[in-house]
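Bench log. Compound arrived from synthesis this morning; before running ITC I wanted a structural hypothesis for how MRU sits in the protein. Inputs:
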Amino acid sequence: MRPLPFETVRLSDDGRLCILDQRMLPGREEYIELQTAEDVWHAIKDLAVRGAPLIGVAAAYGFYISVKDIDDDFLAGCRKVRDYLDSSRPTAVNLSWALDRMMRVAEAGGPDVKVRLLAEARAIHREDISMTELMGRHGYGLIGPSTGILTHCNAGALATSGYGTALAPVYAALDAGRTDLRVYCDETRPLLQGARLSAFEMAKAGADTTVLTDSMASYAMASGLIDLVFVGADRIAANGDTANKIGTSGVAILAKHYGIPFYVVAPTSTVDLSLPSGKDIPIEQRLPEEVTEKWYRERMAPEGVKVLNPAFDVTPSGLISAIVTEKGVIRPPFREGLQGIIDG
Ligand code: MRU
């Protein structure tokens, strides 16, 4: 696939962890260095680095740089770092998935444990890139003759270390020479990942890109502009219920109403078979200021009113047409399909 115009995360040969600071986009492409576990925790919490798969990669490197200089009581130190980083955001399971992989290496121990921890973090990174290419290929098969694609939040290259999940099929289509695609990016209130990030990377990739506010999705669908929906996921429960950015379930309900296919694209590291259904998925609640003040010159709601700010919602599996993973496309019933793909 085409080389990407930015690198979301990088560990240099001399062990410096750099991330593209996504809080600055689309205005500024700034890279920042993270030196401590606290730096990594805040970068994840404040969404400087975000998107489920990318959070996993950043956490794996963050774990490594945080434990590489621990000599006394190494394993206890590793456990502390693991639990600390894991507390930064609750919904994306890729965070604990990556940290648990790192912990398994730490627990195996041995004289070269730090070398193997670095190798594990690099493996998580490499696998993330190749999984996005595979999801792109599988998802491209679903585009067919469709031209209007709606996406919510940012599940693109900026949310992974490769070509994204929901947007990977679009990159695959562009690579295949498709010039007829129109990509519609929901603005994605309140943090505008669609307007700031998806629109940024899609326009940079040369896609015909349109931003709409979240409340315009029904209009766009009713007007015949949308042929299919691709979204990412932060956690997929055993029955296929899927947590993703707040507003995703509303898009799924609209898609069902208008008879438009609604596809979730996510790597198997986002599947959490330990949770029977979506009601068990922890939903992050964020600060009220994100709704009332952020992005505005003046506060946009009266002082003193209560604010609801869940960062994610759960789309019931019945609204999902298919789940695209790096191992292939799963159609309902999802329980059997997800189990099979994890076992296989
Ligand atoms: O709060 P964010 O920006 O981390 O939320 C991101 C999403 O909801 C993405 O759709 C999801 O993590 C999948 S990213 C490939």
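What the model suggests: The mean pLDDT is 97. The CA atoms of residues 151 and 185 lie 5 Å apart.
ITC booked for Thursday regardless.
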